[in-house]
Write a structure and sequence with these properties.
This protein starts with a strand and ends in an 18-residue tail after the last helix. α1 packs parallel to α3. Helices cover 30% and strands 18% of the residues. By secondary structure, it is α+β, with helices and mostly antiparallel strands. It has a four-stranded mixed β-sheet with strand order 2-1-3-4, with helices on one face.
Length: 94
């Protein structure tokens, strides 16, 4: 297991991350949070102090915001071809 956990809500932008994880075909756990109290528990605020979704954990790493999560995943799974290599000339445009 890769240790990826996606914290999201079915009515959030987390659906974009969820779809990207499915396209990447990597194992992950999805944790559905209700708006309101679920996102403001001490446990979740330790993950995302803003109390918002989506958030992705990868071991001890925490990534928030949809675009940042997708970029992180594209780099983590660079072999899948969704991002140019860090040292590729195309990286700046990307």
């Amino acid at each position: 297991m890769s240790g990826l956990t996606l914290y999201t809500n079915a009515m959030s932008r987390g659906n974009t991350v969820d779809l990207f994880l499915k396209i990447l075909d990597v194992p992950y756990q999805r944790v559905e949070l209700d708006y309101g109290a679920d996102m403001h528990t001490p446990e979740y605020l330790a993950i995302n102090p803003m109390g918002k979704v989506p958030a992705l954990t990868d071991g001890d790493r925490v990534i928030t915001e949809t675009a940042a999560i997708c970029m992180y995943l594209a780099d983590k799974f660079i072999e899948k071809g969704f991002a140019p290599a860090v040292d590729a000339p195309e990286r700046g445009t990307y």
